[in-house]
Amino acid sequence: MEFKTKYYKKDILIVGLGKTGKSIFKFFKNQKVNIFIYDDNYDIIKNKFKSKNFFNEKEKSISDFFTIFVSPGISKNHKLIKKATKQNIRISSDVELFWENQLNRNINQSILGITGTNGKSTIALMISRVLKTQPLGNFGNTILDNLDKKTKHFVIELSSFQLDYIDNFKPNISIISNIKNDHLNYHKTFDNYFKTKINISKNQGKEDFLILNYDDQNIKNYFKKKSNTKAKIIKVSNKSSFSKGIYYKNNNIYDNFFTNKKYSLKESNFLKLNHNQLNYTIAFSALLVLGLEANKVIERLNEFEGLPHRLEFLGKIKKISFYNDSKATNVAATCSAIRSFKKVILIVGGSDKGESFNELNKFSNIITQTYLVGENANKIKKYINRQLPNKVCESLKEALERSYKKSLSSGKLYPILFSPASASFDNYKSFEERGDCFKKLFKDIRKMVA
């Protein structure tokens, strides 16, 4: 059946009119499809779309729709989604629409799908830069707006929200960087979240590749069972050695999957951080799958210096190093950042996501002082009060100034790490805005003491 006939003259509903929802609307706009739209924030959309496209439950039944397309982050508890689920109405996403379109056009382009709780944006960008293309999906560049891109490879970063509604989507190469507690306010349990993440590999066949972080015990345990995937597994690590895998050790990459060779890497600030060693090895592995020559891959990857707000080194003030890790929106990301230090002063807190902060207590030998900010500051205090020295602050400015004074007065000049382990929506529109605020505060201190 031709793709265009699947939705031909059918009623579809798009729930959520953010970037993704708008891209789905644009995709269908010139097709003979009856498009209806819904967004909780009616005021935002009323002047941008024709009223005939608005869905009103009093005028039309949810059961009339052939498919409902959901934007990432729309809760399963949303009234329309609950009704659709109850009535067995098909719920889909832009990712699935992209896949259907690819099948219909029969274009020979490889698809790399990247997911994980942390690191997926960094990995997506590293791979994209080597391939001279643009990362799509959760990275911020919508998939459907880039369908006609002249590229041999689609590099797609996939969130748990996007993977929640996968039916047939199948990457040639799937990457799972790690799976830790996150988005529990949406998925309710870790088990639900985990199942959503591994959806990335569920349709892969024996001709496809699945690159797995084998330092992640949950991933390792699940994929030990051969029946859980048909794809060829490439085990990746920066802690363990594999006779059949690819791993990082002492600034070398050992490829025991394709070339059976050891490759020496150039020392860099990027590779001093543990999680970046793993990200580098994962990106290297994916590019070898595509047939690129190992030394050329390393040459290109060595140019990568990291992304803003991801354990970003801002500079030093009186020999004290400052790091902006605003992208750390969950506890696992913050723990990963802490592991890169011998001693550190931590600034943590923000908008709550329903997580426990117990894990931070395991780093009492590394964290010398904790400053708590944001709406969940007092919640975090309850988790760490006896294990970690801490102080609740009224603002990020106060936390940073206290951190600087504490590091100076200690005489030890401990580095200062802003890694919130929380979302940003209590005081900021995004983690980028929060990180930019921290960077400005850092510059203010530097000017003040200059």
How would you explain this protein's 3D organization?
The chain has 3 domains: 3-92, NAD(P)-binding Rossmann-like Domain (Rossmann fold, 3-Layer(aba) Sandwich); 107-301, Mur-like, catalytic domain (UDP-N-acetylmuramoyl-L-alanine:D-glutamate ligase, 3-Layer(aba) Sandwich), CATH 3.40.1190.10; 312-449, Alpha-Beta Complex (Protein-Tyrosine Phosphatase, Chain A), CATH 3.90.190.20. The protein is built from 16 helices and 19 strands. It has helices at residues 3-6, 19-28, 42-45, 79-86, 94-105, 120-131, 160-163, 184-187, 190-197, 217-223, 274-289, 294-301, 331-338, 377-384, 396-410, 431-449; strands at residues 11-15, 34-38, 67-70, 90-92, 110-115, 136-137, 153-157, 173-176, 209-213, 232-237, 245-249, 252-255, 261-264, 312-317, 320-324, 344-348, 367-372, 390-392, 416-418. The protein has a 9-stranded mixed sheet, with helices on one face. Strands 14-15-19-16-17-18 form a 6-stranded mixed sheet, sandwiched between helices. Helix 6 (120-131) crosses helix 11 (274-289), helix 11 (274-289) crosses helix 12 (294-301) and helix 15 (396-410) crosses helix 16 (431-449). The longest helix is centred in the last third of the chain and has 19 residues, at 431-449. 45% of the residues are buried.
